Structures are given as structure tokens and as C-alpha cells.
Amino acid sequence: MSEQSLRGKVAVVGGGAKNLGGLLSARLGEAGAKVVVHYHGDSSAPDAEKTVEAVRGAGSEAVAVQGDLTRVAEVRTLFDTAVDTFGGVDVAVNTTGMVLRKPILETSEEEYDRMFAINAKAAYFFIQEAGRRLNDHGKIISLGTSLLAAFTDGYSTYAGGKAPLEHFTRAAAKEFADRGISVNTVAPGPMDTPFFYPQETPERVRFHQSQALGNQLTRIEDIVPVIMFLATQGWWFTGQTLFPNGGYTTR
Ligand SMILES: NC(=O)c1ccc[n+]([C@@H]2O[C@H](COP(=O)([O-])OP(=O)(O)OC[C@H]3O[C@@H](n4cnc5c(N)ncnc54)[C@H](OP(=O)(O)O)[C@@H]3O)[C@@H](O)[C@H]2O)c1
Fold first, then answer.
1. Which residues line ligand 1 (CB under 6 A)?
2. Within-domain flag for 221
3. What is the pLDDT of residues 101-155, one digit of tens each?
4. Which of 140, 171, 188, 221 has the fewest CB atoms within 10 Å, counting from its CB?
5. How many distinct structural domains can be found in the chain?
6. Given this model, what pLDDT does residue 1 score?
7. What is the CATH number of the domain that holds 199?
8. Contact 36, 102 (CB under 8 A)
9. Residue 91: which domain range?
């Protein structure tokens, strides 16, 4: 059986400053992990600082690192920081992503490239670098979307950009298996964060709510325990896509 405690372990959280990643960083800290809190935009710097303080307040250690993870060199710097600061990495969670709801006929080349750069390319090189740097029995978790199990309009570059994650995850699970590393994708339902609303109308928000248990959106508090489980007792999951979404979609 794989080691299950996070005490003294080191976690890298891509997009770890706010929303889902922010709560996850704080929970990892409460569980005794040292956390490398990645953030992207300058406007996320105060969130990163708050999250670092939350981890320290829980009695653990944390450091914030800024980076554009569509640049492979910056993915490497993120993991370098973890190794240089804390001596290694055990858990790598990539919560970064970008959403766009737009018909195919209106989508520009620039929008397509931007969406695939963060949702697919950054995710790929995050997994690659995690595979290089993780200690034996490490865990790699990427964030997908429950749209991977849906048949809908408008989200071609978002769901399409996240779709490769499933195959990156499967290949990495096989390729890193000899070191006991588990690799999974967590694909939440529409989540109640500022990421979701700008793409949707109030009517569509109500429809999304109506498709899940209790007529509600997915909450970050429902997803963080799933990630924590995969990072600990859930180590036997590998190569999988999990759909925590209150029954919103399945396959
Ligand atoms: N909210 C939903 O409805 C929903 C549903 C299912 C799955 N998800 C997925 O869950 C994950 C977390 O989403 P969330 O709702 O918690 O929203 P969020 O905090 O906005 O997460 C997206 C993160 O990606 C970062 N990011 C964007 N471009 C980047 C780049 N070039 N390099 C590095 N980081 C970059 C953002 O940083 P900046 O803001 O600083 O640019 C942000 O921290 C995402 O992968 C999302 O696709 C969300």
C-alpha cells in the first residue's frame, strides 16, 4: 500500500492561489503538506499571498510562484522552486484552465490557440515535468470538466481543449507506474466560481443547476475532498477521469 499521509509531503498546486486551487492549497497545508502555490496574473498575487498565509497559519510551509504555464520553461521553474525550496515533490495538482463559450463559426484562430495553449499544452507539460520531478509514489491530478461527458454546443474549444487530458492521463499512468505514481483527471460539474458565470446567461445557470442533485451547482468544497482522496487513500485510482458533479453528466 502506498504512503497515505500528507504530513511533511510537498505539493505543487498550479493555479493554487484562489477558487478551487486556493481552497485546495489551504487544505493541503492543514493536512501537513508544504505547498508551492502557483499563480498566473498580477491580479492573483494578493490571493496567492493570502493562501500562503493560510498554509502557514495551519502550521505548515508555503511559497508563491508566478508563471505563465503555457511556457514550458515556466512550468519547469515552478517544479524547480518546489525541489529547491522543499527538497522534492510528492503531489502535483494542475487546476489551471480557461473557458470560452462561443459557436465554432465565430471562433478565431487566436482564440483556438489560446484555449489549447492553457487547457491542453500547459496540462501536458505540467504532467511531463511532474513525471520527471515527483518522488516515487507521487500523485498527479489534473482538472478537466464534466463537459467531457456531455453532448452540447458552444464549448468546442473548452471541452475540446480539455479532452486531450484524458489521454495524457492514461499514457502517464502507464509510463510512471513503475515508480508507483498515480495519475488522474478530476472533471467537476459547473462550479460556483467567477470562472463559470461570464460565459452563461441566468437561464442557462438555472438549467445547469437543475441537472444536479439538490438543484445546485458544484461547489469547490465538494471537489477538494475528491482531490485530497486521490492524493492519499485513493492512490489505487490511476489513469482515470472522475466526474464529481451531483449527477450532472455521466458516461
Ligand atoms: N468553474 C467551473 O465551472 C468549472 C467547472 C469544471 C471544471 N473547471 C476547471 O476547474 C479548474 C479551476 O477553475 P476555477 O473555477 O477554480 O477557476 P479559476 O480560479 O479561474 O482557475 C483557472 C486558473 O487558471 C489560471 N490560468 C489561466 N491562464 C493561465 C496561464 N497562461 N498560465 C498559468 N495559469 C493560468 C488562472 O490564473 P489567473 O486568473 O491569474 O489568470 C486561474 O488561477 C479549471 O481548470 C477549470 O477549467 C471549472
1. 15, 18-21, 39-41, 44, 68-70, 95-98, 118, 122, 143, 145, 188, 190-191, 193, 195-196
2. yes
3. 999 999 999 999 999 999 999 999 999 999 999 999 999 999 999 999 999 999 9
4. 221
5. 1
6. 46
7. 3.40.50.720
8. no
9. 10-242
